[in-house]
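Lab notes, practical 5.
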Amino acid sequence: MNKKKSRYKILISATSKKEAQKILKNLLEKRLVAGGLIWKGKAIYYLKDKIKKKKFFPIFSYTLDDNKEKIIEIVKNITKDIAPCISFFEINHTNEEFANWIDENVYIH
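Output from the prediction step:
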């Protein structure tokens, strides 16, 4: 009996566009993710009891369940963020073509 693959959308925070590109390229080269999008926005958050504002470069990417811990390790080794967001959201329902694209382009490590 084949185990059903669990696919995930990932949200990763990056402190700069350069850092976001480095993280995504590193994950792609290791085939831990199928691809990703880098966005630019403004973050407003608490840090040391003060409200801070800064540019934010979230990465949205896609992977399989077995790669989550390796992705966390790699992102933490690259980012300068003291509390990076590395969150996984299970994809419970999607079109077959997108699911196949993830499955075909991500290697399980």
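Observations recorded by the TA: The two ends are 21 Å apart (CA to CA). The chain has one domain: 7-105.
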